[in-house]
Amino acid sequence: MNSKLGGVAGVFWRVRQVRETGLLFVLILLGIVLSVLTPVFFTGENFLNIFKQVTLVTIVACGQTFVLTSGGIDLSVGGILGLSSIIMAWTINHGMNTPGAIAVCLLFGTIVGVINGFLITRLKLPPFIITLGMASIAKGFVLVITKGYAIMLDNPFIIALGQNSWGVFPVMVIFLPVVVIITHWVYNYTIFGNRVKSIGGNETAARLSGINVKSNKILTYALCGFLCGLAGLIITGRLNSGNPNAGTNFDMNSIAAVIVGGTALSGGSGTIIGTMLGALLMGVITNGLVLLGVNMYWQTVATGTIIIVVCALDSFSQRKGDVHA
Asked: CB-based contacts of 22: which residues, under 8 Å, 6+ apart?
């Protein structure tokens, strides 16, 4: 009898140790509460709306997870996304074929990411400063190109990516599991993923062990830039245009999803699945506030509050761990 109890307790303990379990529990609990408060929440149509809302943030946040794990931060993701979208719409409207325009969009995001990584590693300036400056540059170029007006797009394939459905599933939502699965594999089962964690955990030790810190840091920002380009591609179809405001709030929302998802602020550890659940949690909260008729401005207040609370809990957890160590 005692052995059975011990086995059950052991399983329960191991489940508690899984970082994503707590987030999943909170999501389920929040879903139950919202289902009681508003019957519209627990419907297939509303669930698909939530997934459409969080798909782009999740894609960007997966890249942000690599950056934060390496000990950096990327505040330019919104600018890269918006400028990638604008450039693709502009190139299509000026005669470039669809595959070429898509390649330009993805390549541009990647190149800007490489530039971020290069400047951070070569100039030895804080990532906060470099990426904040890059965000301003990107948003400035957006306004230079568009003069503040959207660049309308008439391309069936691009529009289909953002607006069409395969059966009941929106095409854009299908990108979510694909990106999460691939980045989860890269993060956990490749040499690159292990190097990123090593660099974030102890950069000096990583360098002494033979890891090329500069190259791997550049690769993390390149990956983040590529995923911003992918999100820019999808949002162009979603909005049927290259919109100068397309990248608004992606900086804060992507970082919020990563932090809520359990990636350590100090670097060295994180989880892609947790990032996805973090984005879902933020999306469910926003969706619930809308369904309950709460003023949209309070959504921003809720997001900021969650970030502060989670950061405080993370800091407290680290201090407690240091005391026990």
From this structure: none
